[in-house]
Specification:
Layout lengths: L3 E13 L5 H5 L6 E8 L2 E3 L3 E5 L6 H8 L7 E6 L2 E2 L5 H5 L2 E4 L3 H4 L6 H6 L9 H14 L16 H13 L5 E5 L7 H18 L2 E6 L2 H7 L2 E6 L2 E7 H6 L4 H8 L46 E4 L2 E4 L4
Parallel strand pairs: 4-9, 4-10, 7-8, 8-9
Antiparallel strand pairs: 1-2, 1-3, 1-5, 5-6, 10-11, 11-13, 12-13
Helix pairs in contact: 6-7, 7-8
Amino acid sequence: MAEAVVETKGLKKYFLAMKSGFLNKLLRQEPPLVKAVDDINIEVNSGEVLSLVGESGSGKTTLGRLITTLETPTDGEIYFEGRKVIKQNRKTIRRQVQMVFQNPYESLDPRQSIKGIVTEPLARLSLSQSEKNAQFDQVMSAVSLDANFAQRRPKDLSGGQRQRVAVARAIISNPKLIVLDEPTSALDASVQSQVLNLLVALRDEYNFSYIVITHNIAVARYISDRTATMYAGQVVEIGPTDEILKNPKHPYTQALLKSVPTLESKRVEPPHGEVPSLINLPKGCRFNTRCPFVMEKCKTNDPPMRRVGQVNVACWLY
């Protein structure tokens, strides 16, 4: 069995919806909380690609930020290669985890040269300038950019080139895990395929593990080994990508797939209803207000995660 690079147990992240005022404290009223991530249990193995899919606001990016230690959990645990992530070892573990953000233009410092941006993660390491130069040349070659880009600025690059620079910065420190937040959403269709091919090639060459955050089912189908469907801060289905996309179990996963156009059908059906407020979540199953198969039990009890065939699913239908 492959070793888990990262594992979460009961992971939660709640944000204050508003500051608690004097009157709230006087009346001992608890301030409302946004339950962005609520009791997540996942693992990613060495060399594996896990996609997180779901609508905007489902908690995908917050989960990614928790795993990369950019956010501190409200509750629960994160393990990196078997070691529990705590305050004392967070900096050490952070060097083994990188994140590529959704908009490459906003995530790259416009004042820095490309070489300065890409080699920034090496500042913490005791390397000579010649060693840094060698690593810069190596990663630029790996992402199919030539060394002539070294002194350019992000504004001088195309969207695809900026995304390649963001990937180069992520891989230069040779991390064990890379979290990719919507890595192709800001790119043209032709450039998307180039970036996806690049990510697959890098995974094959360096054995990186990826967590890919995406709302694009086609991206998940192409790049991932396993897929997790997130809804209202929870994982509702997780399993092999081929199985989930061919035979989805959870009604929400089924609804997501119906909203994707295919060559066989021009008709698309977006999920009915509105995403619930993360401040005032419905009782029981969080999807019960939109589910076509809702039962009375769904309105009162939260379904446990159960094994059904090759996938794990949280639904009272099973």
